[in-house]
Amino acid sequence: xxxxxxxxxxxxxxxxxxxxxxxxxxxxxxxxxxxxxxxxxxxxxxxxxxxxxxxxxxxxxxxxxxxxxxxxxxxxxxxxxxxxxxxxxxxxxxxxxxxxxxxxxxxxxxxxxxxxxxxxxxxxxxxxxxxxxxxxxxxxxxxxxxxxxxxxxxxxxxxxxxxxxxxxxxxxxxxxxxxxxxxxxxxxxxx
Length: 191
Prior knowledge:
Mean pLDDT: 87
Structural class: alpha/beta
Radius of gyration: 17 Å
Order of helices and strands: EHEEEEHEHEHEEEEEH
Low-confidence stretches: none
Strand order of the largest sheet: 5-2-6-7-1-8
Strand content: 15-25%
Shape: globular
Number of helices: 5
């Protein structure tokens, strides 16, 4: 545990390099000789079942969990306690916010990467709970697939289905304000 822990959030739409930033931060901690443990949602098997992986292929071993309780259970069972806890795609792990806030209060540095809202514009509850605790929030942007401007939102190519569906470029793409139908409501005001 650290005397001055951090709570770092990398958030933004799909393809905004959130996970790359998380892994770069973990590299820094590794060079500072800090012990690190990495978690990922068990349902996220896009690029690897047992690693956090970026779209470009950078991978780091991770422990798959289904709930925040599993994170706490794993931390309690560890013999060699880490100083840094990292979680990728935290919005997919129910109860993760409560677990990570508790661990932060015990002095662990927390580093997460995640979407903060769904393709329909609904904020994810896990993110809503964690934002007030953050010591550093980095809002990452991608490139809009329609116009090339900065994209801050995720567009789902086929609407319907579950609010959280695991997928990559075949299902999602980044969009700017103007080209995201759930975000830009200016047209509906004039109808």
